[in-house]
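User: I'm writing a short methods note and want a consistent example. For ATP-sensitive inward rectifier potassium channel 11, I'll paste the sequence; you return only the structure tokens, no commentary, since I'll be parsing the reply automatically.
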Amino acid sequence: AMLSRKGLIPEDYLLTRLAEDVLQPKFKTKQGKARFVGKNGTCNVAHTNIREQGRFLQDVFTTLVDLKWLYTLIIFTMSFLCSWLLFGMIWWLVAFAHGDLDQRGDDFVPCVTDIHSFSSAFLFSIEVQVTIGFGGRMITEECVSAIIILIVQNIVGLVINAIMLGCIFMKTAQAHRRAETLIFSKHAVISLRNSKLCFMIRIGDLRKSMIISATVRMQVVRKSTTEEGEVVPLNQIDIHMDNPVGTNGIFLVSPLIISHVIDKSSPLYELSPTDLQHQDLEVIVVLEGVVETTGITTQARTSYVSEEILWGQRFVPTVSEDDGMYAVDYSKFGNTVKAPTPCCSAKELEAAGGIARFKLNEGVTMRTSVRRRRGAAMVRRSRLENK
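Assistant:
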């Protein structure tokens, strides 16, 4: 949102997890209808009545990474403080058991020098674990137990450092941060493409660093009923896509239009413009790939409900050639224009004779309108001549 206010990012497209205001949605869906996936990619699913909470502790590292920053920093600080206090208590007990806390003569050799209280034992514990070594306190050869504790504390300190620093690194380099610059068009469109009725969206990447092996998946989520009468509230149906580059992966250097041909195998086959306004339909789009700079797999998501699907529209071009280079105008990223499109479902279109019949009727309509305009112009011209 801050980038769009500064004018760096146009408001004609959705920037995942940045430009979408969750509290003030730009698209008003039907009252009482919840989205399965938000426009910013968040999943609108609440997990309740989880009785096996202990499963989260079996994967402590992932649990720490998933926590909020405040809780992570508190755990980060408390893990070091608790370990210092624990081993400080142990060093104090060693000194107490050996008699180092009592005033002895010059011939007395303590386990650890200059430990007179718990405070000094706590300071020595910090020096051992973080390897500061100010030199005032040091371990001697007098006590074997002290040498063993020194080794144990060093190993425990290394383990805590590895876990905590790894957790901080993973939180700062999480994959969804890269997904902030993967963008989707606000609207999806349905129009003719290569003489076929297609469902289309536009995706793009704002960064110059590429997403390697990028793939796009689409699903239709809607309520359905099986032949046995079982109601499936969120039935996820995969839809096949016509990849613009003809391979499994896409080369996401410039914005691409991802299209889905609405044929007999499509869940949108019986969908008409009228049905689009009355059905609780949601199309989920998932873009996955490997971040080139970090090698981490990232995923960006968005969804389109019925109100966000435009019938009879197509996207305008955004790429132009300028001084031997291809320039992308992101101000046109989400712009659409009207396109001649049948106002019926793909099933009805096929039953009526296919797209050839539609183009024939469209041509007749256009010729008739041209004749009417020409006739009106001739009438106006004759009136002016008579005057």
